[in-house]
């Protein structure tokens, strides 16, 4: 009697299925819609509140957005990465494992002819794509909004130099890539928490609450020895992308810190997945 061996599903089919499942959820589409609308509202708001001004060292960061197409996308990224982008990343990560467990579908996935390492990789891919897509959508719409409001001739760094459209666009892409790595770090930690519980709300409360705690700890001078361990400690340095030339030191430190969180988060998630009862 011939025994049929289980057929391993092609990885690309698994990835496509995961993305289709994620982007069919109404809350994912709602969050992306809000992130797409935010830079438009932000840009129009600065134009209405303030007269157009040129960027100089003596003016506040928000005031320089009006009339400056280069400031808007970076400032929008700096504000959304505090809450909205981490929220979207955490929601996706919480649904990836904890949500599946709460609906009873994770057990079926663990029994399917898909290794747990591949399953975690597919879930991590979905979280990474959503967070990257959200950040990229927000930045591109903000850049286009800035060009429409201020014009292509008003791309001015906070150092006072005028950039071309191509150079400004490249700077925005660099800033977006830096933010995406920070969100991947949040996603890795969220997946680690998601692998340990069946309650998606607990994942969101833990991760978002932890980010707020990190922000508070970074404001206490006596606890400044903890700063190198706080992922949020580098987020203020995103404004360095607005300088000419870009000072790399703080940005590289923030990038390396995020990579450490990614390694730790996915290591914990993998350790939990391989020992998880089916």
Automatic annotation (TrEMBL):
The lineage of its organism: Bacteria, Bacillati, Actinomycetota, Actinomycetes, Pseudonocardiales. The keyword Aminoacyl-tRNA synthetase does not apply. This is ABC-2 type transport system permease protein. The chain crosses the membrane at residues 29-49, 61-85, 125-149, 169-194, 201-220, 251-271. One of its GO terms (cellular component) is plasma membrane. The keyword Transmembrane helix applies. It holds the Pfam family ABC2_membrane_2. GO terms for molecular function: ABC-type transporter activity. Keywords: Membrane, Transmembrane, Transmembrane helix. It comes from the Bacteria.
């Amino acid at each position: 009697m011939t025994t049929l061996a289980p057929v391993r599903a092609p990885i690309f089919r698994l990835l496509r299925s995961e993305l289709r499942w994620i982007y069919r959820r109404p809350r994912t589409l709602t969050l992306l819609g809000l992130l797409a609308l935010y830079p438009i509202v932000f840009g129009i708001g600065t134009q209405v509140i303030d007269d157009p001004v040129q960027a100089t060292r003596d003016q506040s960061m928000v005031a320089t957005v009006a009339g400056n197409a280069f400031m808007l996308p970076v400032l929008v990224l700096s504000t959304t990465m505090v809450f909205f982008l981490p929220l979207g990343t955490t929601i996706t990560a919480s649904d990836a494992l904890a949500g599946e467990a709460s609906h009873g579908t994770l057990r079926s996935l663990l029994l399917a002819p898909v290794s747990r390492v591949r399953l975690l990789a597919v879930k991590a891919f979905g979280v990474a794509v959503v967070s990257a897509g959200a950040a990229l959508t927000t930045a591109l719409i903000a850049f286009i909004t800035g060009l429409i409001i201020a014009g292509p001739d008003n791309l001015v760094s906070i150092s006072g130099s005028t950039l071309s459209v191509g150079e400004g666009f490249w700077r925005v892409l660099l800033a977006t890539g830096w933010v995406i790595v920070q969100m991947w770090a949040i996603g890795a930690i969220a997946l680690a928490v998601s692998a340990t519980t069946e309650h998606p709300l607990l994942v969101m409360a833990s991760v978002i609450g932890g980010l707020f705690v990190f922000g508070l700890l970074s404001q206490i001078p006596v606890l400044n020895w903890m700063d190198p361990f706080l992922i949020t400690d580098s987020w203020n340095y995103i404004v360095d992308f607005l300088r000419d030339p870009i000072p790399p030191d703080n940005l590289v430190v923030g990038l390396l810190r995020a990579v450490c969180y990614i390694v730790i988060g996915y290591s914990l998630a993998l350790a939990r997945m391989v020992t998880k009862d089916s």
